[in-house]
Design goal:
alpha+beta, 3-stranded antiparallel sheet, 33% helix, disordered N terminus
């Protein structure tokens, strides 16, 4: 990911005890995600987009050390003088950083060293919250809340990167063993009709008062009458596209998409393999037969767009999606389910808007009218990526529930597909 956006615009509660409790919980969850790994798993980087788990653990600690402890704790000495170089991602204003492509070449610091680093940073942050004055707590609350949202993004990245790492090994190792019962057929694809007109898009106050700056400012958009599907596209529906020559028909593809299909040899979603006439897919629970009733996942924007054209539909705009989803509760198959795998829709009506898969939209990732990045290094994360990327909405089966909302904008380049990415159809009414 471009490790997703990391800039906050609004503050949260400044209660030090509540903040410390949430800080402990988020930090512990990151380490719990890594608990099933063997030491050797922590260092692997099969492609540039995937970071080793060890790097994620250290980078999320560097964030607090760099933006909080070094700024607000008098006399603080960094845990190691070179960690700022090794574990900065690409905050140019924070100094030089180790090349992303070489993260998997770092055998040192060891995994044990990185965990000691995490413990050190966690303890120092808690010490700060226990002893700082009111003004310092107010400033710390902003940075810590931003850092916790940043770490929650990396929790999702950890799961998707671990999946890619394990899939790259012929042993087909299991990350989390579990039984997944065959899915029941989802309801027939239905449509939700929305009248056009002037609507508002962008952040509306959420539970904890936090959002990223790319969700602001709240602004007006013009929508035409539109229809959006009640559920996600399934594996079975996508197989029909494949069987109808979907990957061999250039008329269905954007130009860049067709060029990518040819150069990469794509003929199915990522992780799929045809074994003796049946499609199988690598999951975090190991290799299993593709279930026709589950949402299709690990498809690029190019593939999502081509499928929509084949189906005689289109992808929704990000504003159509937000307009349809903003009145719905944030509930679904999210990180807390512990499945880490898309599940089928089970009821008629609006379904799967949150969780299961990030939903590609037809919208380019651009600034909202009046957008201004925050000052300093934390302002780098969003504004400078507003080019050559497409917006996704809704969260996935690896997204923490408190982390997602109707206005949340994820973004990737259109050829990416290693995240939990899928699609929902739309059309003009």
């Amino acid at each position: 990911m471009n490790q997703q956006p990391v800039s906050s615009a609004l503050l949260v509660s400044q209660d030090a005890n509540a903040l410390a409790e949430r800080f402990r919980g988020v930090r512990a969850r990151t380490e719990a995600i890594c608990a099933p790994l063997e030491t050797e798993d922590y260092v692997v980087q099969p492609i540039i987009d995937v970071s080793p788990p060890k790097w994620h653990l250290a980078h999320t600690s560097w964030f607090f050390e760099n933006f909080l402890l070094s700024e607000l704790q008098p006399g603080y000495e960094r845990f190691h003088p070179l960690y700022a170089y090794l574990f900065n991602s690409y905050y140019i204003l924070s100094g030089k950083f180790h090349p992303r492509v070489d993260r998997g070449n770092l055998s040192r610091p060891t995994v044990a060293d990185v965990y000691r680093y995490r413990e050190h940073v966690t303890d120092r942050v808690l010490d700060l919250l226990a002893s700082a004055d009111e003004a310092t707590i107010a400033r710390a609350a902003e940075i810590i809340t931003l850092g916790l949202n940043h770490e929650e993004q990396h929790q999702e990245l950890l799961l998707t990167d671990i999946k890619y790492i394990l899939s790259s090994n012929p042993l087909e190792s299991v990350f989390k063993a579990r039984d997944i019962a065959p899915a029941q057929p989802p309801p027939p694809l239905g449509w939700l009709d929305f009248a056009g007109g002037i609507a508002e898009a962008g952040y509306v106050k959420h539970d904890d008062g936090f959002c990223f700056d790319n969700e602001l400012p709240r602004h007006r958009v013009l929508l035409n009458d539109y229809r959006i599907a009640t559920r996600l596209v399934t594996n079975g529906e996508y197989v029909a596209f494949m069987a109808d020559g979907g990957y061999e028909r250039p008329e269905l593809w954007l130009s860049d998409g067709w060029a990518t299909v040819q150069s990469e040899g794509w003929r199915s979603p990522l992780y799929w393999e045809n074994r003796d006439g049946d499609w199988h897919s690598f999951t975090l629970a190991g290799v299993r037969k593709v279930d026709a009733n589950e949402p299709v996942v690990h498809v690029s924007h190019y593939e999502a767009d081509a499928y929509a054209r084949w189906a005689g539909k289109r992808l929704p705009s990000e504003f159509e999606w937000e307009h349809a989803a903003e009145s719905l509760p944030v509930a679904g198959n999210l990180y807390e389910s512990g499945i880490y795998h898309p599940a089928p829709a089970t009821a008629d009506g609006p379904a799967q808007f949150y969780g299961d898969v990030w939903e590609w939209t037809q919208s380019a990732y651009l600034p909202y009218p009046g957008f201004k990045p925050l000052p300093g290094a934390v302002g780098e994360y969003n504004g400078k990526f507003m080019s050559s990327q497409m917006v996704l909405r809704g969260g996935s089966c690896a997204t923490p529930a408190k982390h997602v909302r109707a206005s949340y904008r994820n973004f990737f380049q259109p050829f990416h597909r290693w995240q939990f990415m899928g699609l929902r159809l739309a059309e003009d009414a």
